[in-house]
Amino acid sequence: xxxxxxxxxxxxxxxxxxxxxxxxxxxxxxxxxxxxxxxxxxxxxxxxxxxxxxxxxxxxxxxxxxxxxxxxxxxxxxxxxxxxxxxxxxxxxxxxxxxxxxxxxxxxxxxxxxxxxxxxxxxxxxxxxxxxxxxx
Length: 136
Prior knowledge:
By secondary structure, this protein is of the alpha+beta class. The chain has two domains: 1-31; 38-135, Lipocalin, CATH 2.40.128.520. 23% of the residues lie in helices and 46% in strands. Strands 1-2-3-4-6-7-8-9 form an eight-stranded antiparallel beta barrel.
């Protein structure tokens, strides 16, 4: 019985000393940010294909891939398949630039809120609207 208690105590001491080392090793590894690249769709069915672009490959470009709802006017449908957004990175998972299609131009703030979710806040003058896009 004494042998079992001693073995158990040694095992617990080893586990107690190794666990913090493993935790430190895991914490020391850099976490890779989720890629914003891919096709994302909003609740209305409008979608964008996002890709990293620009000279240093950190800006975010958006190509309008589908347009649904009230926005699907003949004038706006002409922009499907075209790049309508370019935004330089301003921080981790954040980009700020402009969104333009036809006569409409808006400042755009893009935030990747999770690996599969991107929020786009578009502002014209003092009016702003945020739409959430989910990875397809």
